[in-house]
Amino acid sequence: MQENISTSKSEVPKHSKDATILLENNQIQAGLKELANKLNEIYKDDKPLFLCVVNGAIVFTGQLLPMLTFPMMLDYVHVSRYKNNEAGDLVWKHYPSKEVKGRNVVVLDDVLDSGITISAIKDWCLSQGANKVETVVLLEKEIPRDEAVIQNANHAAFKIGKAFVYGFGLDNDEYWRNTKDIHVFGD
Q1: Mean pLDDT by 10-residue block, N- to C-terminus, for the chain (187 residues)?
Q2: Which domains are assigned to the chain?
């Protein structure tokens, strides 16, 4: 999960005043097509279980799946990190309803940031008997991560810097998941 840009609960954060477009929708679509081509080759005989990490990966998942040509199942997980002084603590709001035991699982997430959330999901799946767990992300931040977490996704559509990003499913203080482009604050 990514850091939060603070606003009061009654104030909707601006999405264009201090932000610029990092990836336009046509670039995102081209990246998704390239990613789908790779996944189609890798998983063509695998029949994996895909787990969408909600809420952030809903748009990514929804636009990627129709590009996939192999048999797969879909489920979701809802795991959030606290936004207070206890950063790093996780709250599981929904575990997968489909059995992961004996399955090859692919976790779809919006962004690999600190790696804490996606590592926890992977570890949980393995603890439940998944054969293997791989990660696919829309965005992978090229930042140092704690050595105890996933360092890189198995597959990423885009690699980006450390800046706060939102749009195309990623939020800015719970808003603007609905923008067609990905916007950035800072570097």
Answers
A1: 46 68 96 98 96 95 98 95 54 94 97 92 97 97 92 96 91 87 79
A2: 26-81+88-160 (3.40.50.2020)
